[in-house]
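Q: Predict the assembly, please.
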Amino acid sequence: MMEKDKILKEGLLEQYILGSLSKEDTATIESILQNDIELKQQLDLLEADLERISFENAIEPPLNVKLALQSELEESQVKKTNWVPLFAAASLAVLFLLGSLWMYTQWQNAEQNLESLQDRTVNLQQRLENLEQNYQLTSNRLETINNPNVVPLVLYGNHIAPNAKAVAYVNHKNKLVLINPQGLPKLPRDKTYQMWSDVEGEMVNMGVVPTDEKLVVLKYIDHAESLNITIEPAGGNDHPTVEQLVSYVIL
Amino acid sequence: MKTPQVDSELIARLSNGDKSALYGLYDKYSAALYGVIIRMCRDGAQAEDLLQETFVKIWRNIDRYDPDKGKFYTWAYRIARNTTLNSFKGKDNLIQSGDLSVYKDKATEPEPNYLQLKGSLKKLEPHHQEAIALIYFKGYTHQEAHEKMGVPLGTFKSYVRQALKQLRKSYTNELVWLWFIFEMIA
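A: Predicted assembly structure:
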């Protein structure tokens, strides 16, 4: 009750209406007003007073104020509604960007896959060509060797090269001589094996025999009586070094 | 004369974003608020801007209005008053908040005719009239107004109370007359 007397006496309601009270005082007044009907009626009277004297002293504002207000609100609404398509457009742009990025990475992956496939194809092609060449070589050799007109001859090493062994294939019909030198022991770099034919006591050069090949083609010599292998300086010799005879076979 | 139901309906529509409701409230209250604003700032062009600003604030802040705490007009009046007082502060940064010295200087100039108070206020004694004018139409607080009038705060407060009592009395008489005339026309 003291509060209420104070409010009335201090003119706090009048100041409350003007909005000139502090926040705390305003809150206090509002909470008291909620429970005090008599005080609320007093406030209603004061509000009615303010409204009445305001209306009695009303001054009509120029029409342009309302027009300005209307255009301000319309403008702000236009801005508001504009957000929707803008947002949609922005979203679409982002989606498009993400989509493009995804497509780009997919494309890059596909490109890489294609490249590696192409590499593998080229690789496979080369291997196939190599295999074909090898096959051709092997089958040629086999054909040359595995022939009814071919006489295979084994040349065993003597005391100089006890474990040496070479196989010669001689085709008198086609005049071909081949030798498989794989069984001959490796020589130092400055030495080589060389093959000779003995024709009526004379040794005729058939060619050098490198040990790193599987089958070496040599010169066919007519009327040869035997085949002889000697060790000679690298590059071959004009005349055989008879002391270095490793192996021979009579035809 | 206003009917509270129409107000509450307009306010409900306004809360739903209906601009025409704001224009309805404008048609009803703009003149009353303009009368307050222009008496505070005494500048037609500025008062027009402030009135527009007041209604934009009403439009934006209608959700903060609570009908249980008071009438719509009281709420709108407070917005208009604060908007106008704030515009004085903003005008010159040297003026500290609450310092109305520039404004007070302006208030000592003779009042233009069209701004002189009308209606039942005219029937009040001059000191009662001034007390009401200072707080309701010139933006003074009670504290500032009693200093302006050169009377103790308690005295000033009783001026306001007495003035309002007088106003109500004359108004009731007028209402009886108005009702009588209204009935005659109807």
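Chain B touches chain A through 50 residues (CB under 8 Å). The first helix of chain B runs from residue 4 to 15.
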